[in-house]
Structure formats: structure tokens, C-alpha cells
From TrEMBL:
This is Type I restriction enzyme endonuclease subunit. It comes from Kryptobacter tengchongensis. Keywords: ATP-binding, DNA-binding, Endonuclease, Hydrolase, Nuclease, Nucleotide-binding, Restriction system. Its EC number is 3.1.21.3. Subunit R is required for both nuclease and ATPase activities, but not for modification. GO terms for molecular function: ATP binding; DNA binding; type I site-specific deoxyribonuclease activity. Belongs to the HsdR family. It catalyses: Endonucleolytic cleavage of DNA to give random double-stranded fragments with terminal 5'-phosphates, ATP is simultaneously hydrolyzed. SUPFAM superfamilies: P-loop containing nucleoside triphosphate hydrolases. It comes from the Bacteria. Signal peptide: none annotated.
Length: 1004
């Protein structure tokens, strides 16, 4: 099936599905557009503004002012922020007749059926370049979604090509893409992403939308259902600024699903359809649980039926409070949130305006509630005005932990009719049935309102697998201590910040003994030496690391010893300090004084913030040494390894190891190095979940799994490449290149090799890999040759640091394979093509392949602008496809390649000799390909055409429909004159007219 036909089938499928879910199809030629450079359907938009805002008395000038504000919004980051705010809250204007300021709504979010949903395909837009979009979706005349499709039945093009096409369109048509919020690539995969023109493609998050009972290519239409798209626009898309970088947030499917379940539970309760007023949400760590809470709160905050909602975010740890505070602060939510500092502050919020309650979103930390002020809680519990309030919503984070018990119970007692939603990133322990009862409806079979398993998160690419490795048996805890810990100690009891006097005497004594063992300097010396070597060999320059120790004192010891093996700037300690506590160990006091002196800052909290910021943004520190801080809630994708020398189990263990599960460039897995011995019996460490083993299945795997995957991929490559693998002979490389010259096979090879390379870098220190090293070297040499000859534009320089072990292998192989001696050119041009032609180290096959792929690249990248390469585009494409499909042999290919190179050289020289400008020379080459006539005559005709149209070619002429028609007419008239002389057919006349007109539109 021809490529164009297969692509059209995809487009037709999308058109059909969109109509099924309520969108109206309009052919592009039938859209009422003011001009080809106007993104808005102005008549539709004006009509909808009048219909949606019937309470406003508009003049024509008012409507025009609204349109002007949209059109005049800049295409930079601030403009995108303004446009999104106009979409969400309306366009602020002062109406002429009423003389009052109003926000004029562009969409009716309350009544989706009152909006107009239309779409079209093959939509032309004239920006800095002229582009044609596959599909574009308009709501009330405003373009909101762009879908680009590629043929899903071939490896020649894929989803990424669709994604990159939209990214290119963003840059050349900024006036269009300041309105569009979501891009969708539709190919062998279907993914959506936010439109952020100022960010490069490697910084854009791309997601698959999944929905129960639907395949991925169908599930995307759930997202595009008119009511859902409006919901997403209003409640789930935000501008976010993090560490100076501005991005746009769009929801993941499980966030949208859970937030709407929460919203619907509240609404159903308010409408008297249910008495349920709580729910438990378990979304695996790394899946965006915090944003789910914020999406839910935002949607409820603007819900009119709640009148003056009071919404609480409640956490039990300072670092979680800071994380949530940071997340709330980073988002452009349209309202300010407040932090509650005390019970008195809480009382003010709840009793505001004679117990109607204060409208807002409030963040509080449980530990700030002083038990001495419990009388205030008791007082509030007996106030009827508070008891009957239904517009209080509480979101409690990490509810699996025990600290919530008393306060949560007290708040339930006060806010009897309020709503309570618990969130957790780890499954609830089997012994903690209490949590299910507080937030679920066990008798009705509802344990979770919504859940998102680890296998879902890995499948969706939101987390990477976690691999564990046990090292240095001589420093591990004794088996009997581990056994006692697993059996007797609750997960919280070993926390550094816990007041051990509250524990039973026997437990306190054993914990103290274990702590002393974990602070043993001899053991720490062994571990630090090993960490230094392991980190430098496997992670330095690629990823960063976390060292989790048994106590704050151990943190200081680790830092002092680690500095003997690594530069001091490599590591920093992140922990709390208690200078006013007389029991504070001297080692910690001394370290604090040194820290203050080094940073010249008295506030250690401020120093810790600086250290964390440097860890995120700068080369150093590379390792953070912690005991309790950062092992929960710290989200840093650069973390590749966690070195563990602390007793952890259950949810604390799950939370700690999940620090390394965030995806990052070239990150295949996160690694946990266990020095304490917990992973010796992983099942015991996680046995509290044994009632539902599926909940933690695959949470962490040993190093056998990635090794087995490495071997499996090598087998796949052997199946693909046959017996050539491992033979360092020219004939073997030539034979393999012959196999992967086909685009589909080449793409398969490229994907397999990149996966293999990531695994090799991860497993490099695994002795078992040595057996396969020769094969890996051979495949690497082939890949480097493949890149240089067939993908001369593929630039991996930005990510080379992530495979430095492989780079070392490439240097070693240079003498084996002359292909590796070819330097990556700074510029692919005629000079580069000549250098390949003259390279005697390459075989005839390698030279020919390299030249044809370089020419093909030039045709694809500059063909529209360079008349010489445009003139050979069809010829080159046909030649490449014939060679890839084995329709011509190498000798025939070589002959044709030589002809093309000679043609390029000849035309470059001719261009200089004739003195024609770029447009004239381009027209001359088009004429030359269609008409048999003397060269000087065609030169004169090219000059004549350009002379006739020159007066029309002012700036942005091609955006004015009247001028475009005039240029078309002038070209047609000149060609009619030529037809009279050269007697070409009417079909040839039309083709010639179209080709010349298209060339002038794009280049003049």
C-alpha cells in the first residue's frame, strides 16, 4: 500500500472517530477565514461571545476589542500565560455602554453543549513559513488541538516524526500556536503533549492517554470528547515555573480520572445522591500524586455549588510541606493559598464570617498542632455552624503513616459533614486496616476510590525499574538483628527524629545498639571507599546519588571519611540541626559550625536549601548524605543511585528507594546499593503487604533482570544481523550495512542498540558482561558506521556523557574500522560530500552509501529553499527507495550517485556564472526539468517571470489572498505565452504553474 494512502487511512480514521464523539467536520476550503495567516475563525468566535455572555450589552467595538486583545497577545511565554488566562477566566474589558470592567467568557464551561466544536484537515496556515496541518480542532472558532499523523505500518516514520513536525510548526507559526494547547502525534503510538514553543523537544513531556476497555488509539478520543477537552482546558492545564524554567502542565490520564472521581463524589453528596464523603487514592510514587491533589482542589475551588469552599492540604512532615508549598507556588492557579501555622489560625479559618468559613486553599503541617491547645478543638467540635458545613474538603497526603490518627479523628469530629480524601504513594499495609476504614468503604467493597499500580507507572514511562545490589557483606547487620527488626519494630520506630523514650525499653535498647553499629567508623570507612569507587566508575558525570545513613551522627562520619576518597565538593550533608538541644552530639555541633563558616550564613535551614538547589542545578554536589530528610517527597530525576546503610522497611523502604525511579535522559534503571542487608530477605522487608502481593510485585528487582535483558537484546540483534555479528572484517560490516540500509530494519537496529547501550552502561561493572563484550564492541562499531553513513544528521553529542564507557570502546575500535575515523561534520554540504568521495579508507560501498544519504539529507532539509537540491529531490528519493528495496545494485547506485554529484557541482558553477538571483535560478531549474529548450532561453523566461511578479512581493505578501491571486494570475499569463512557443500539454502547463507558484510562495 502506498505510503500516502496508508497515512490517509489514519487521517480518515481520526476524522471518523472525532465525528462519533460529537465534533463537526468542515472541509478546510469551507472554513470562513479572514486570511490564511489568521488562526481564529473570527465570525464563529464573535457569534459565540455574544451567545455565551448574554448578560452583557455589547457594542461592535467591544467585540472587536476582545478580538484585538487575543490577536495582540505576544507569542512569548507571557503571551501564552495571558492567552491561557483568557481561556480560563475570560478576557478583561471595560464595556462601552455599561462603563464597567468585565471578564468576557470565550467558552461556556458550565454547559459544554453551548459551545461549537468543529475540526478540519489539511489546514493551510501562512506564518514565517507556509505550513499545512493534518488536523486542527476549533472550539468556538479558537484552535486548541493539532493532530499530526504518520503511517503506523512502517518504521520509516513514527510517532516521533509527528511530534517533531509539530515542534517545527510551533517555531515557524507562533501566531497559531499561541492558541493551541495540546499537540497529538498519531502513528504506531498515540501520544499527546503540551504546546511549549520556547522549550526544545527533549524537555517536552509526552504522554499516552489510557482508558479502561479501550486501545490506546481509541482512548485518546476519550480525552478529546468535547466535555472532557473543556474540562482539561479549564481545570488541568497550567503554566508552571520551576527554578526559572517556565513550562505548561497537562494532566496524565490517571490524574484526570482520580480528580474527577473526587469531584464527582463531592457533587453527588451535595446533590443528595450519596452519603459518601471520603475516599482513598493510591497512585504509585512518581506518577504525579501531588498534582492530582492540586487538580482536585482547583476544580472544587471554582465549583459554584460549594459557594465558599474551605480546602485543606494536610501533611505530616516538614519536607512534604515544603514540597507541596513549592508545587502550589510554581503553578499559576489564579488564587493565593495560605499556610496555617497553629490551631488558633485553624479556628480563624473555620469560624470566618460567623462560621460560614473562609474561602480558600490552606496548607498545614500536623506537627504544628500543639496538644496543649486541644481545648480549642473541643470547643470547635461542639459548634453546630461548623458541624453542618459541607463545603470543607480535606486532602491528607501519605495517610499510611500513623501520625494522622489523633488529629485526623479530631478533624472528622469537628467537620462531620466535610469531605476527607486520603492520598498515598505506597500501598496500605495489611495490618493497617484502620486507614481503609477512615477513608474507604470496606463493607461496600471500596478500599480505594482510585488506584494506579507500579506496573501501570512503568508501562507508561512515568517511572523506571529499580534494581538492587548487595555489597560488602562484612559490614552488614547480623541476621538475628535483621530478624528482630522485621518482627518487632514498626516502620516509624527507627526514624532518626522519633523520640525513643516513647518506645518500650527493650526496643529502645536494641535500636540504640543497632544505631551504634551503623555509626561504626571502621564499617563506614569500608563503605565510603566502596561508594567512591563504585560511583566514579558507574555514575559520575551521568547521574547523581543519595547516601542514606543510620543517624545524623552517621551523616557527619560519612562526610568526613568520604572526603578522603572523593573531592570534598562531591558531597554534602542534608539533615536537621538542633543547636538548642543539650543532647545534640558534639560531632553534629562541630559540623554545624564548620558549615556556617563555609557558607557564611547563620541559618542552617537556608544552607540546606542552597545545597539542594546546587544539587539540582549545578555539577556539584554529586552526592547528598542524609538520614531522614529527602527520603520521602524528594523528586529529582537526576538521581540514579541510592546507597543504603539504614534500617528501613515497609512504606519507608518503598518511599526511600523510589527516589531513584524517576525517568531521565538515558536512564534505564535506578540502582539501590544495599550495605545493611535489608534486601537479603526482600519478602520479609515488605511482608506487611502480603495480603495483596500484586501491589508490590516488581517494585524492585535484582541485577539478574537487566543482565538477562542485555543478553536477550543481543540475541535479537543476532537474529536481525545474522552471523555477521562479532566478525571484525570489512565484509561482515558491509553485509550488516546491507541489511540495515532498509529504513524499517535500520530503525529496528537503532532502537535495539540504544536499549542495549543503556543496559551496558548500567551493567558495566557486572563481570558477567565480559563474556559478551566482543559482540557489544562489534555492534557498537556497526552503529557508529550506520550513524555516519546513513544518519549524518544524528547528533548524540549532548548525551555522550551518559555512555562514556561506550565512548571509550569506540576510541579503542578506531583502528579496527575505518568508518570510525570519519569525523562528524559541522556542516553537511557539498564539501562534505566531496570529502566522502575522496576518502580512500572507505570501501566503495561505504562511500556510495555515505554520499547518497548526505544528499538525501540535504534534499530533505534545504530542498525547499535551495533550487539545486529541490530540482533533484524526486530523483534522489526514487534512487534511495530503489536501493533500500534492492531494486538496484551497488554498482548501479554508484553510477547514479556520481551523476548526481556531478550535476550538483555543475549547477553550483552555473548559478555563479549566470548571475541569476536565488528565485530566478530556482524558476530556471523548474523550467529546465519540464521543457526542452536552450539554457539561455530558459534563463530569460525565468527573469521575465520574476520581473512580472516582483512588484507584488512585499513583506508577507503571501498572507494577503488578493495578492496571492494576482501572483498566480501573472505566472499563469507568462506560462500561457511560453506554451504557445514550446507546445507543452495542458496537464504539463498546470503542473508547471503549481510548482513555480509553490516555490515562489515559500521562498520569495
Amino acid at each position: 500500500m502506498p505510503k500516502q494512502l496508508e497515512k490517509k487511512l489514519v487521517e480518515d480514521y481520526v476524522i471518523e472517530k472525532l465525528q462519533e464523539i460529537g465534533w463537526r467536520y468542515v472541509e478546510a476550503k469551507d472554513l470562513e477565514r479572514a486570511s490564511l495567516d489568521e488562526p481564529l475563525l473570527l465570525d464563529d468566535l464573535k457569534q459565540k461571545i455574544l451567545e455565551i455572555n448574554q448578560n452583557v450589552e455589547f457594542t461592535e467595538d467591544d467585540i472587536n476589542e476582545i478580538i484585538r486583545m487575543l490577536q495582540n497577545a505576544s507569542t512569548n511565554q507571557n503571551g501564552h500565560r495571558d492567552i491561557l488566562n483568557y481561556f480560563k477566566y475570560g478576557v478583561p474589558i471595560k464595556t462601552e455602554k455599561e462603563k464597567i470592567s468585565r471578564k468576557i467568557l470565550l467558552f461556556d464551561f458550565q454547559n459544554p453543549q453551548n459551545n461549537e466544536f468543529i475540526f478540519t484537515n489539511q489546514f493551510d496556515f501562512f506564518g514565517r513559513e507556509n505550513i499545512r496541518l493534518d488536523l486542527i480542532l476549533f472550539v468556538n472558532g479558537i484552535p486548541l488541538v493539532n493532530i499530526e499523523s504518520k503511517n503506523p505500518y512502517t518504521r520509516k516514520t513514527d510517532y516521533r516524526d509527528a511530534f517533531l513536525q509539530i515542534k517545527r510548526y510551533e517555531k515557524v507559526s507562533p501566531e497559531l500556536y499561541k492558541y493551541i494547547q495540546i499537540g497529538i502525534g498519531f502513528a504506531e503510538k498515540v501520544k499527546y503533549f503540551p504546546i511549549i514553543p520556547w522549550l526544545e523537544e527533549d524537555k517536552i513531556d509526552q504522554f499516552v492517554w489510557r482508558w479502561e476497555g479501550k486501545e490506546d488509539d481509541e482512548a485518546i478520543f476519550v480525552m478529546l470528547e468535547p466535555k472532557n477537552l473543556l474540562d482539561i482546558l479549564k481545570n488541568f492545564i497550567f503554566i508552571r515555573e520551576v527554578r526559572g524554567e517556565i513550562k505548561k502542565v497537562v494532566p496524565r490520564y490517571m490524574q484526570f480520572r482520580a480528580a474527577n472521581k473526587i469531584y464527582q463524589r463531592v457533587i453527588d453528596n451535595l446533590n443528595g445522591e450519596t452519603n459518601k464523603n471520603k475516599g482513598l487514592i493510591w497512585h504509585w510514587q512518581g506518577s504525579g500524586k501531588t498534582l492530582t491533589m492540586i487538580f482536585s482542589a482547583y476544580k472544587l475551588y471554582y465549583e459554584k455549588r460549594l459557594e465558599n469552599p474551605t480546602i485543606f492540604f494536610i501533611v505530616d512532615r516538614r519536607d512534604l510541606e515544603e514540597q507541596l508549598n513549592s508545587e502550589l507556588s510554581s503553578l499559576d492557579l489564579g488564587f493565593e493559598f495560605e499556610r496555617i501555622e497553629s490551631i488558633k489560625n485553624l479556628k480563624e479559618v473555620i469560624t470566618w464570617d460567623n462560621y460560614k468559613g473562609k474561602r480558600g486553599v490552606f496548607l498545614t503541617l500536623i506537627h504544628k498542632f500543639d496538644t496543649e491547645e486541644e481545648f480549642i478543638l473541643n470547643e470547635l467540635e461542639n459548634v453546630e455552624g461548623i458541624n453542618i458545613r459541607k463545603n470543607v474538603i480535606c486532602f491528607l497526603d501519605e495517610v499510611h503513616r500513623t501520625q494522622y490518627g489523633e488529629l485526623a479523628g479530631k478533624m472528622h469530629a469537628i467537620l462531620k459533614n466535610g469531605f476527607f480524601f486520603g492520598f498515598t504513594g505506597t500501598p496500605i499495609m495489611s495490618k493497617d486496616r484502620n486507614t481503609y476504614e477512615k477513608f474507604g468503604y470496606i463493607s461496600e467493597g471500596e478500599m480505594y476510590l482510585d488506584k494506579y499500580f507500579i506496573d501501570d507507572a512503568q508501562k507508561d514511562g512515568f517511572v523506571v525499574p529499580i534494581v538492587y545490589e548487595m555489597r560488602k557483606e562484612e559490614v552488614r547487620l547480623k541476621d538475628q538483628d535483621l530478624e528482630w527488626y522485621f518482627e518487632k519494630v514498626d516502620a516509624e520506630d527507627i526514624a532518626d527524629e522519633v523520640e525513643t523514650k516513647m518506645l518500650r525499653e527493650e526496643i529502645r535498647r536494641r535500636i540504640n545498639e543497632i544505631t551504634v553499629f551503623l555509626e561504626n567508623e571502621k564499617n563506614i570507612e569500608i563503605i565510603c571507599e566502596d561508594i567512591a569507587q563504585h560511583f566514579k566508575e558507574n555514575f559520575d558525570g551521568k547521574f547523581k546519588g543519595l547516601i542514606v545513613t543510620g543517624s545524623r551522627k552517621a551523616c557527619v562520619i560519612f562526610k568526613e571519611i568520604l572526603d578522603k576518597y572523593l573531592p570534598s565538593e562531591y558531597s554534602e550533608v542534608v539533615m536537621t540541626f538542633n543547636p538548642s538541644d543539650p543532647r545534640e552530639p558534639q560531632e553534629i555541633q562541630t559540623y554545624r559550625e564548620k558549615l556556617i563558616k563555609r557558607f557564611n550564613i547563620q541559618d542552617t535551614d537556608e544552607i540546606i536549601k542552597i545545597i539542594i538547589e546546587k544539587f539540582r542545578k549545578e555539577e556539584n554536589p554529586k552526592l547528598l548524605i542524609v538520614t531522614d530528610m529527602l527520603i520521602t517527597g524528594f523528586d529529582e530525576p537526576q538521581l540514579g543511585v541510592l546507597y543504603l546503610y539504614k534500617l528501613l522497611k515497609d512504606h519507608r523502604l518503598l518511599q526511600a528507594i523510589a527516589r531513584v525511579n524517576r525517568p531521565y535522559i538515558e536512564k534505564e534503571c535506578g540502582l539501590v546499593v544495599d550495605y545493611v542487608g535489608i534486601f537479603k530477605d526482600l519478602k520479609r522487608a515488605l511482608e506487611v503487604y502480603s495480603e495483596d502481593e500484586k501491589l508490590v510485585e516488581g517494585v524492585v528487582i535484582d541485577k539478574d533482570a537487566p543482565f538477562e535483558k542485555f543478553v536477550e537484546i543481543l540475541k535479537e540483534l543476532r537474529n536481525l544481523l545474522g552471523d555477521f555479528i562479532g566478525k571484525f572484517e570489512k565484509e561482515s560490516f558491509d553485509g550488516a550495512l546491507e541489511i540495515i540500509k532498509n529504513p524499517e530494519t535500520g530503525k529496528e537496529f537503532e532502537e535495539l542498540y540504544k536499549k542495549l547501550r543503556r543496559l551496558f552502561e548500567f551493567l558495566k561493572s557486572d563481570e558477567r558482561v565480559i563474556k559478551y563484550l566482543s559482540d557489544y564492541k562489534w555492534v557498537t562499531a556497526l552503529y557508529e558506521g550506520y550513524k555516519k553513513l546513513m544518519k549524518p544528521d544524528l547528533d548524540e553529542s549532548k548525551i555522550e556523557k551518559f555512555f562514556n564507557n561506550t565512548i571509550a570502546i569506540i576510541r579503542e575500535l578506531i583502528e579496527v574500522d575505518p568508518l570510525l575515523k570519519i569525523r562528524k561534520p559541522l556542516l553537511i554540504d557539498l564539501q562534505y560530500i566531496k570529502s566522502l568521495k575522496e576518502n580512500l579508507d572507505l570501501s566503495e560501498k561505504e562511500r556510495t552509501i555515505g554520499i547518497i544519504n548526505a544528499i538525501d539529507l540535504l534534499v530533505r532539509t534545504i530542498g525547499d529553499k535551495n533550487p539545486i537540491y529541490k530540482s533533484i529531490a524526486d530523483r534522489v528519493r526514487e534512487l534511495v527507495e530503489k536501493w533500500q528495496e534492492d531494486e538496484i545494485n551497488l554498482e548501479e547506485l554508484g553510477i547514479e550517485v556520481d551523476k548526481i554529484v556531478s550535476y550538483i557541482e555543475e549547477k553550483e558553477e552555473e548559478h555563479k556564472r549566470t548571475g541569476l538571483n536565488e528565485i530566478e535560478f530556482g524558476i530556471k531549474l523548474i523550467l529546465e526539468n519540464k521543457i526542452k529548450a536552450p539554457s539561455d532561453e530558459l534563463e530569460n523566461w525565468a527573469k521575465q517571470i520574476y520581473k512580472n511578479i516582483k512588484s507584488q512581493l512585499f513583506e508577507k505578501w503571501n498572507k494577503n489572498p488578493a495578492v496571492v491571486k494576482e501572483v498566480e494570475k501573472i505566472i499563469r499569463e507568462t506560462l500561457i505565452e511560453m506554451r504557445g512557443k514550446y507546445k507543452f500539454s495542458y496537464e504539463e502547463f498546470n503542473n508547471l504553474h503549481k510548482e513555480i507558484f509553490d516555490y515562489i510562495c515559500k521562498n520569495a
